[in-house]
Design goal:
Length: 343
Amino acid sequence: MKKRIKKGFTLVELIVVMAIFSILMVAVMALTGPVQRLFQKTALAEKTYSYANNIQLYLQGKLEYAEDVYVGTTDKLDFNGVNGVDDEDIAKLVETFRKEHFENTVTYDGNKANYMKGNIHVIKLCNSDTKLKSGEEVPRGQIIHRVYGFTSNIPISSTSAYTETADLNKAFFDAVDSVYNYNYALGSSNLKVVKMPPDSDLDDAAKAKIDRDVVYRALDKDIEDSPTGISATTLAVSIVLDKKDTGSIDIPAFGSQKACRAFASPVSVQIANLPLTNIAIRENHSSSPKGVKRPMMEAEGDPVKLQGDGAVGYAVSCDKYASSTFDFQNDIYFVYAYTDEMY
């Protein structure tokens, strides 16, 4: 009877096989690593596009059919020079809007002319943390919507009533995957690699935040301190999303580079073009850049007449209340009204 000889792997053979497997694993990781990073970047791009696109759609929905529009920034709206842009400043801006477009305008109820009533809206794009009038904390990136009711012959003041809401869903900021900062600037621009100043030019907070191993980018118009380039036909907002854990840093001027907001990678920018459709259609039928002429009466019982050229403000005002240069330091304001809310 023959004996069966059991055969197995020798230690040398096992070591050789393990070495081969190790080499194969390294090769597989080398191949899958870039693919995994590509998927991560794609997921980030899709997520940031979704957030930015929702903000763009929000702004377009609010402004597309506006009757008239003011565009403003923080640095030009602090009329009283106290506490930045406060309720008194906003009320003054809204009152100017009312007076330029609706002063003493009237509607007709079938029996007599009555002073017109309606709403004036104010949208604020927040580039810093703030609070609602209720005291609720509002994070940077939120959009605050304020509405004043008006009567055309009554001035609006800092004591005038208004409603105020934070319009972006809290999920933008509180959800598990809401890991982004939101930054707004008037005009359109592109991301560009930016040089970071030496530590000697930075304060302690900035020095602690900068990671010298990370690539930082900024928008070219911010680096160059260029004009925003906005007008009635080129109104746009640059929406920049960067990761909260890396964040942005406002850096001082350095060499030929102007002061700007630098964003650590990964960062994404989307341009929200804001076509003012209602105003554009109206201007196709009139060469005047002014708003709609409406019937008005100086005092109760006076004859009704049409507003004169000098009694109607511009349909779109971009340069009077808005900074001329590209800047992330300013909050952005839009003041507007709708015809279908007037009665």
